[in-house]
Write a structure and sequence with these properties.
transferase, SIR2/SIRT2 'Small Domain', 10 helices, NAD-dependent protein deacetylase, Ssirtuin_cat_dom, alpha/beta, 298 residues, 2 domains
Length: 298
């Protein structure tokens, strides 16, 4: 099992990468079967803020240990999530998501590993997606492992807390964090719901900071990288090992790594190409310019 806890010693420092343009990225990726790794930066243009991008405010997301160990933390989380998840449900994929779906449709992209929980890749039409950190639309019981739709839980939370969501203001007026967490403070009176089946603690089916990514999910992601000829990283600072390990795997095996991200990333030292720009700009350009794969001779 691989920990997802955030490192506290890494600080962004520029790393000189010789190749830095979209032209470079096209040359390196052309003719290769590509796997993609995406982070919060690909969804910022859909209205979901990231954690570490330039201009992002400091954020201290709840850890797994806090969630399971403190009832007050759980109440606080569920109150914020009860408001925030509605915003996630209303977001739409942007040009970057659609570009990756197009690359997959044309046979250039074998699949996408995403650190996001927003399901925007699937909404854009991507079929082969590994939701590394889970997905916001499902909830799991920590005692009996029952999984229920988040929408069904919302109905129960509305019944337990009539008028709560409306009392904190309109969704458009509330700051939303990348994990469907709304930034609100008055949560002491909120009543969370227990598992309908066993009365156990419910948790979003999302990998929290400090929690382990399920082994089968990690193995599937490694297999996707191993089966590809190149790795395209889009919108991730690669601060946590959860994503960086796949970059290191590709580099270890001599596969070109192309990173598209605003600002420095922890993986720049492994990159053959680093394009310091937004994914909504660069990915559609790559999709437009990368040639179709050569036909397999019969």
């Amino acid at each position: 099992m691989q920990p997802v806890s955030r490192p506290t010693t890494w600080h962004p420092e520029p790393v000189d990468v010789a190749l830095t343009t979209v032209d470079d990225a096209v040359r390196v990726l052309a003719g290769n079967r590509i796997a993609a790794l995406t982070g919060a930066g690909i969804s910022t243009d859909s209205g979901i803020p990231d954690y570490r991008g330039p201009g992002s405010p400091p954020r201290n997301p709840m850890t797994y240990q806090q969630f399971i160990g403190d009832e007050d933390f759980r109440r606080h989380y569920w109150a914020r999530n009860h408001v925030g998840w509605r915003h996630m449900h209303r977001t739409e994929p942007n040009a970057g998501h659609h570009a990756l779906a197009d690359l997959e449709e044309r046979g250039l992209l074998s699949g996408t590993i995403t650190q996001n929980v927003d399901l925007l890749h699937q909404e854009a039409g991507s079929r082969n997606v590994i939701d590394l950190h889970g997905r916001y639309d499902r909830v799991i019981c920590l005692s009996c492992s029952l999984v229920v739709p988040r929408a069904a839980l919302a109905e129960r939370l509305d019944a337990l807390n009539p008028g709560f969501a409306e009392s904190v203001g309109a969704v458009g007026d509330i700051e939303i964090a990348p994990d469907a967490d709304a930034v609100i403070s008055a949560t002491a009176h909120f009543r969370p719901a227990a598992c309908d089946s066993c009365g156990g603690v419910l948790k979003p089916e999302i990998v929290y900071f400090g929690e382990n990514v399920p082994r089968d999910r990690v193995d599937a992601a490694y297999s996707m990288v191993d089966d590809a000829d190149a790795l395209l990283v889009a919108g991730s600072s690669l601060t946590v090992m959860s994503g960086l390990r796949f970059v290191k795997r590709a580099a270890r095996d001599g596969k070109p790594v192309v990173i598209v991200n605003r600002g420095a990333t922890r993986g720049d030292v492994y990159a053959m190409v680093k394009v310091d720009d937004g994914t909504s700009t660069v990915l559609p350009e790559l999709a437009k310019r990368l040639p179709a794969p050569a036909a397999t001779p019969r």
